[in-house]
Amino acid sequence: MLTNAIRSGPRKALVLLTAVCLASIANGALAHDDPPAPSGGFDMSVKDGTVHAPRADAHAPIGVMADHRHHKGDLMLSYRYMHMWMEGNLIGDNNVSPDKIATTVPNRFFGAPGQPPTLRVVPMRMDMDMHMFGGMYGVTDRITLMAMLPHITKDMHHITYKGGMGTTRLGTFDTSTNGVGDASLSALIGLIDAKTAEGAQHLNLILGMSAPTGSIKEEERILTPMGMRPTVRLPYAMQLGSGTWDFLPGIVYTARSGNFSYGGQYRGWIRLEDENNQGYSLGDLHQGTVWAQYEWAPWISNSIRVAGRTQDSIHGLDVNISGPVQTANPDFYSGERVDLLFGVNLVGQHGAICGHRLAAEVGVPIYQDLNGPQLKTDWTLMFGWQKAFGDC
Ligand SMILES: [Cu+2]
């Protein structure tokens, strides 16, 4: 089924390569005898065969996933809570009012029965809450597997304008969806683990796959410009998954020198199918980030981070999604965004809390250029808990 749907040659090669890699890693076929990692090679403070408490800065800021590996046989569990708050609309990098959207932006469905010439429903705010459950396991000292399963809640608030023209507001309505998102499995493969005079540096390759476990058929009641309240398939932005198998490549570099650490990561979400079973594929997403951290004491570090992302528009169309609203138009999904984020990592050093990590990171966009009208991001927040059972 998967192979039938993959039409383009290079993408097919990517999925096969990744599937083979993940399958062989999972089978332990690559579990040859690695040379023992240098003491403290993963900054986990293994000294003289005694395992000590980990350093706060041994993990990247909590918003960065797939930043570190584990020793062979070590299991880490994690939970992250993410909140994203969006309010107001942008066309390019300019704010645009709802009245202007409702009177000037063409409705791509105009010409179909009952469709007005311009957009008449305008999203004003959106909240997204995500609970992300994760596990990491060191298959060998060189290869760590990482599994992620998100649970997502989305809420969107809209204004409906009355009839086919003018700026009279008929009312407002909210839609919400919640459920499991797309599950993923990735492998982190150590390319370089080097010990330096004052610390260590690591370069890891990330190869992952995301499965279409999130719903793309969510429905809810809306308010139309004619005052009707039908239940319809919600726009792409409110769905919970991509509907496609996705390739998740990446590369991550981390380094520490004394109490100062830093790193950089690229991750991609490459759609492996031209269309899902509803006739479209989300655009590819590329994310890059760099950060620096300072560890005040072994139990606490603070971080500053810059994260950029570029998102392509949706290819194809779900014929069940239409209407005079920007989110029904597959073109109004692409854009670029750069966030500035501040974080804190805490890790227990003694007793019952030893090895338990708590971390938080808050971000604000410093640049957004959206092919819109599109809702703009106001801020993001992430909390996380992590516990590696090999620590302490
Ligand atoms: Cu981990």
Please give a structural write-up.
The protein is mainly beta. The chain has one domain: monomeric porin ompg (Porin). The protein is built from three helices and 19 strands. The chain has an eleven-stranded antiparallel β-barrel with strand order 3-5-6-8-9-12-13-15-16-18-19. A two-stranded antiparallel sheet has the order 1-2. The longest helix is centred in the N-terminal third of the chain and has 18 residues. The N terminus is likely disordered. Bound molecules: copper (II) ion.
Q: What key attributes describe this structure?
A:
two-stranded antiparallel sheet; 11-stranded antiparallel barrel; elongated; 392 residues; disordered N terminus; 3 helices; 19 strands; 7% helix; binds copper (II) ion; Porin; single chain; mainly beta
Topology:
Blueprint: H1 2-5, H2 9-26, E1 46-47, E2 50-51, E3 75-92, E4 94-96, H3 98-104, E5 121-138, E6 143-161, E7 169-180, E8 184-195, E9 199-210, E10 219-221, E11 231-233, E12 246-257, E13 260-271, E14 280-281, E15 285-297, E16 300-311, E17 315-316, E18 335-347, E19 356-388
Antiparallel strand pairs: 1-2, 3-4, 3-5, 3-19, 5-6, 6-7, 6-8, 8-9, 9-12, 10-11, 12-13, 13-15, 14-17, 15-16, 16-18, 18-19
